[in-house]
Write a structure and sequence with these properties.
heterotrimer; A alpha+beta (577); B mainly alpha (330); C mainly alpha (291); B: 330 residues; mainly alpha; 13 helices; 0% strand; globular; C: 291 residues; 71% helix; elongated
Chain lengths: 577, 330, 291
């Protein structure tokens, strides 16, 4: 018999193809989730990406860092919004909130708030949510280190008593960071479910409702009954928001150029060459010129202070002078980021930078100066011109960033080349993210780049990350370099207890911290990572920019409650449809 | 015949056991802990961080001693429970794989079968005609020497970036709901074509030259000359040669499956095709033990089934199999 | 993969050489491979930039200053290309060599000794044949923090020997039944002696061709691993060039000079090796010379 009977061969393949389509459209897709209901009219749909790198699978705001794009901000809402661009707090679920005595904070909710299942959102929900923080595993458990009690006064009023002087900075941060949860739904859940559950088919209070999701997309639908339509006179422009999950920036770039994305919050290498109509693409960004993007966080060089020679502040300062940040900004980022201020303070915090200190103790790339500093401190140099310890042992510092973080991978190679010119040998390497975390947390590293701390309402968040004590066996959250300075830590705590309105008091504490920071150099600020946001103006216009309105232009986790929810109300469809 | 199959089954069983064990063990022997990575992304304060870690370790059973984890892995497997994914937090591994599997199968099965079929056909023709041989042979060698992802890159560049007639990425238009409607199927096919083509072409080249070379061997074999001397028509000789040439091509198919799977994985990555390849990649990056185990399991099962089918076909085509297999034939 | 000669004929050296220089496939294949060897050896002397030095000219098309243009970082593509090509040959030789050695040891022992040793070795070979080794390789590579070209080659070598072992076993099996082996056995030579003085030389051409195929295979596997980003963390490679070209949107920006050359080189080297192999087959196997 012949294997090659034409008809059978092709029929067999055809059958496989049909079966595959059938699987895709039925079995495969409906394995877990609701199939997407219908097509979304292009002119009423906003396509976004850049937050979700894996399939959306979680709508639990307690699972910070993993919940689907928009879970906080579009679905669950916070008491206040905070706009870092103008340093303004805006009441959101709250109508007002203030310290009515030195240790009592009184919070009034707006009337007429409601959950999407029709239940009213009341003070009981606020009390329930804050009370949950008493469990250690809840992300905002920290507030209970200074909070004494939370009481429902009436359906719209909550009273919070503090143990002593409130940690004003942290508390202000809490008010716009964590959302209020529906007590009537969550109270029956087990603690494990609350901490680690996926919270499918979520009921929220926000401007959008969960509509559908699949492996690559998360779809939100406008909530027609949202309380804010009346109370805030806000109407969200897109009827649907389709957030595309993707792993690679080059894919996002393709989609953006083909008008399949309206807002890309991805890092798109080379985007500067396409902004402003170059190449015929309708792509714009927040600034029309370099740096094109706002700054979202500082990338720091974290040094292991338990190791020689990094335990020597002179060496650390010399290392700072050996960081070729301008080359990274130029060649790695093509000017879409800015080099950092020597204090690491984000541009939005420039008022807190002590300029005289920066003049005397600041640094910039200067390899010969770095080399000179090491020589005069008594470091030896090998025959290859590379620095050695004072006792003459070769120094080779390993610098790690996670595998696959392509801009950082390129960046540290540039830094290593620049440092070599100063006579400091740095070897870049790229462990997988989890392995990097293990090395970093256990103090088993030389140098690592970190940008965990995002833009926020207060520089306190940076300083507690820099100086936080005590040092544990595993440092899972801050002070990875294990810098032990009780004076600095008590200054940080003093800053925390300074009221947010007391700018002078904040400045004075911060100046003292910057003095320690710049002379001891426990970490080296490198550059500001951009708040990546590229708009395709074909379908939607009126995006946030330096010439329109000041709003953070990203749906990254934590940003809708920093104001980007306003962006959704302000963008305009190009064609009415 | 029975001993042949029972021997095969033992091999398959052993392979399954060894492969799955390797896959289970390697991630666990390596530094880094998936929960730590998960927690690190959450940037939780110290107290919460430890408490949440404990919760997740319990959820994933990572607080158990290692031998216990291994046992519960097999028990779970027997009950069809592959555990929970860490990369796709909170989703069962089986459902994550179920969403990706159709895409990979839809690429692989047609690419393997069509590549094999067309390659053998053209290779056999080339062995007969000098003109065809002079074009097929060089083309075949170039194709089979091409790295899968590079061909994929070329196709993506030409059709997706320069000509802009086919999409560069994805399995279907993003945001388009799966349905049995024509727009969806059309979008599916458009996205499918380039990754399929790159897999198909590389395979095609290999099979074509393989077939061509084997047929030429057979035509030079003693029996062919003997038949020729007896005055048998050329057609008959070629038919015999073709039949004999099929045997190594069938075993070759079994050997090639592993390589094609590897090719499919990278091709999917080039096209951001939502199949197992992209999933494997992310599972590795996130140390998602459970997802990795699950995908690996499916690859092993797939390769074993394919091998088994090839074995059965071989027996059907070649009654001498027992001797052939025990004697070991390339 | 192309079929191997199953009956290498024994020819005198001169006869082989005579046919070798007249075999078009062998000559073409060898020339292509040698051309790339020359580029890899001479290239570094011609390259005016070191492969990973960033320069001010970014995204430049090929020009007199940069023969193959520049990357997004202003690195010289030609320099990366020649160093990558060197590593390609290193991986191929080392990976192919390890795989061929492992294949030979297993194949010889299994085919010559037979019996329960053969049973066990054959079982192991079959298990390795069916395991999707690439997936295993992926997992291993992902967890090695520092990887050099040599480490990569070793892992590739250790996972790609099985089919060679199987083929060599079959050859040994058939040679083992020949008279001269029987005589050697009777004269009391040890198994290893017989394998290395009687069996191996008689299938030298076959072994060489097996090595060439493994050589090409190792290059392809390495390129694939590198492309996923799991290749050497120290030193460049052709696969890594393609990886970075994709990551930095060379496709979208039309920077063909970044990803075309590495692929052409891999295709050229591996294709050249394969064509060479068929040519060799024809040279060693007189029956095929007619074609």
């Amino acid at each position: 018999m012949s294997i090659f009977k034409r008809r059978r061969g092709w029929a067999g393949v055809g059958a496989v193809a049909v079966a595959a389509v059938a699987l895709l459209s039925t079995g495969g897709a409906s394995a877990q989730q609701t199939p997407l209901a219908a097509n979304y009219p292009r002119s009423q749909t906003l396509y976004t990406s850049g937050t979700q790198y894996g399939p959306p699978s979680n709508w639990n705001p307690m699972v910070t860092g993993n919940y689907a794009t928009g879970t906080i901000g579009l679905l669950y809402e916070t008491l206040f919004l905070y706009n870092p661009l103008n340093n303004q707090f805006t009441p959101w679920l709250a109508k007002s909130g203030s310290f009515t005595s030195s240790t009592v904070y009184t919070l009034t909710l707006r009337p007429g708030l409601a959950w999407s299942d029709g239940q009213p959102l009341t003070a009981a929900d606020v009390v329930y949510t804050i009370d949950l923080g008493q469990y250690t595993a809840v992300p905002y458990h920290n507030i209970w280190t200074y909070l004494k009690s939370v009481t429902e006064v009436n359906t719209t009023t909550v009273s919070l008593a503090f143990k002593s002087t409130p940690n004003y900075q942290e508390w202000a941060n809490f008010l716009y960071t964590y959302p209020i949860l529906p007590k009537h739904i969550w109270q029956s859940r087990s603690l494990t479910d609350i901490i680690t559950g996926t919270n499918p088919n979520p009921i929220g209070s926000g401007p959008y409702l969960y509509l559908a999701h699949d492996q690559t997309t998360m779809v939100w639908q406008r909530n027609p009954n949202w309380w804010g339509i009346k109370a805030l006179n806000l109407k969200m422009a897109p009827k649907y928001i389709v957030d595309v999950a993707n792993q690679s920036n080059n894919v996002a770039l393709s989609l953006l150029l083909q008008d399949q994305l309206d807002l890309s919050n991805n890092f798109l290498p080379g985007i500067a060459s396409l902004v402003g109509g170059i190449g015929g693409y309708p792509i714009t960004t927040y600034y029309p010129k370099a740096p094109y993007m706002l700054s979202a966080n500082t990338a720091w060089l974290v040094m292991n202070l338990k190791r020689t020679p990094l335990n020597d502040p002179v060496f650390r300062r010399a290392l700072a002078f050996a960081m070729d940040i301008p080359a990274v900004v130029r060649s790695d980022y093509n000017y879409i980021v800015k080099g950092s201020n020597p204090t690491g303070m984000l541009p939005t915090w420039s008022q807190y930078v002590d300029q005289t200190l920066v003049k005397s103790l600041g640094f910039s790339y200067n390899p010969s100066k770095a080399n000179q500093m090491l020589k005069s401190a008594g470091y030896k140099f090998g025959s290859n011109g590379m620095v050695e310890t004072k006792s003459g042992k070769p120094i080779n510092l390993s610098l790690i960033v996670p595998q696959g973080w392509s801009d950082w991978m390129a960046g540290i190679q540039i830094l290593a080349q620049g440092a070599a010119k100063a006579g400091i040998q740095i070897t870049p390497s790229f462990p997988a993210y989890n392995s990097l975390v293990a090395q970093r947390n256990s103090g088993n590293f030389d140098l690592v780049i970190n940008n965990d701390q995002q833009i926020s309402n207060t520089p306190w968040s940076y300083y507690q990350w820099m100086f936080g004590l005590p040092i544990l066996k595993t440092q899972s959250y801050r002070n990875y370099g294990r810098y032990n300075n009780p004076t600095a830590w008590s200054l940080v705590q003093q800053l925390d207890r300074t009221p947010v309105t007391d700018t002078a008091g904040m400045k004075s504490a911060i100046a003292k911290l910057q003095q320690i920071q710049l002379s001891q150099m426990p970490v080296i600020p490198l550059w500001y990572n951009g708040m990546w946001a590229q708009y395709n103006t074909t379908t939607w216009s009126n995006w946030p920019s330096s010439s329109t309105y000041q709003t953070v232009p990203t749906l990254w986790r934590g940003y809708p409650n920093m104001g980007s929810v306003y962006m959704l109300a302000k963008i305009k469809p190009v064609k009415a449809g | 015949m029975r001993s042949y199959f029972s021997r095969k089954l033992v091999t398959y069983g052993l392979t399954f056991f060894v492969a799955v064990t390797i896959d289970w063990a390697i991630p666990r022997l390596m530094p880094g802990n998936p929960i730590q990575g998960l927690i690190a992304r959450m940037t939780l304060p110290p107290g919460a961080s430890q408490a949440v870690t404990a919760y997740y370790e319990k959820v994933y059973g990572l607080n158990q001693p290692i031998w216990h984890q291994y046992l519960s892995f097999w028990t779970g497997l027997i009950h069809g429970n592959l555990g929970q994914s860490i990369y796709v937090v909170g989703s069962p591994v089986s459902s994550v794989i179920a969403q990706a599997l159709p895409y990979t199968l839809g690429l692989l099965v047609p690419a393997i079968l069509l590549g094999w079929y067309a390659g053998n056909k053209v290779g056999a023709m080339a062995a007969r005609r000098k003109v065809l041989d002079n074009t097929v042979l060089p083309a075949g060698y170039l194709l089979t020497a091409t790295p899968y992802m590079w061909l994929a890159l070329l196709l993506a560049w030409v059709f997706g970036s320069v000509l802009r007639i086919l999409p560069l990425a994805g399995g279907s238009t993003f945001g388009m709901p799966p349905s049995f409607s024509w727009p969806f199927i059309e979008s599916l096919l458009q996205h499918w074509f380039l990754p399929f083509a790159s897999l198909f072409l590389v395979g095609f080249g290999g099979w074509a030259i393989g077939m061509r070379n084997v047929i030429i061997y057979e035509l030079e074999a003693d029996y062919a000359h003997y038949l020729e001397a007896l005055g048998a028509p050329q057609r008959l000789i070629r038919r015999y040669a073709f039949r004999n040439a099929m045997l190594p091509q069938i075993t070759g198919l079994a050997l090639a499956i592993g390589a094609v799977v590897a090719g499919a994985l990278v091709t999917e990555i080039v096209f951001a095709y939502p199949g197992l390849g992209s999933l494997v990649f992310n599972a590795i990056l996130n140390s998602d033990y459970f997802l990795l185990q699950g995908i690996f399991l499916f690859i092993i099962i797939g390769v074993l089934i394919a091998n088994f089918v090839v074995d059965v076909v071989y027996v059907l085509v070649d009654p001498r199999t027992r001797i052939g297999m025990q004697g070991g034939r390339t | 993969m192309p079929a191997l000669a199953r009956r290498p004929a024994m020819s005198t050296r001169r006869e082989v050489l005579y046919f070798a220089v007249r075999n078009r496939k062998l000559v073409i294949g060898l020339s292509v491979v040698l051309a790339f060897v020359v580029i890899a050896v001479v290239g570094p002397f011609l390259a005016r930039y070191s492969p990973n030095t960033i320069g001010p000219d970014v995204r430049m098309a090929p020009s007199a200053a940069h023969w193959l243009g520049t990357t997004s970082f202003g690195e010289d593509v030609f320099s990366q290309f020649v160093y990558g090509l060197q590593n390609t040959f290193v991986v191929g030789l080392l990976g192919g060599g390890i795989a061929a050695s492992a294949g030979m040891v297993v194949g010889f022992v299994s085919g010559y000794r037979g019996g329960w040793i053969d049973e066990i070795l054959n079982m192991i070979t079959n298990v390795f044949l069916v395991i999707p080794t690439f997936a295993v390789l992926l997992i291993i590579a992902a967890y090695l923090t520092v990887r050099g070209v040599v480490v990569e080659a070793v892992f590739i070598g250790l996972t790609s020997w099985p089919w060679a072992a199987r083929a060599i076993r079959a050859q040994t099996f058939s040679l083992g039944g020949r008279e001269f082996i029987g005589i050697a056995r009777l004269s009391g030579l040890s198994s290893w002696r017989i394998i290395f003085t009687e069996i191996a030389p008689n299938m030298a051409s076959y072994l060489f061709m097996t090595f060439i195929l493994l050589f090409g295979g190792a290059i392809l596997i390495a390129a694939t691993l590198d492309f996923i980003g799991l290749g050497p963390t120290t030193g460049g490679s052709l696969g890594l060039m393609m990886n970075r070209a994709v990551l930095w949107s060379a496709l979208q920006f039309g920077m063909w000079w970044w990803f075309i050359p590495p692929g052409v080189a891999i295709m050229g080297v591996v294709g050249g090796l394969y064509v060479m192999n068929v040519g060799l087959d024809e040279v060693f196997n007189p029956r095929l010379r007619a074609m």
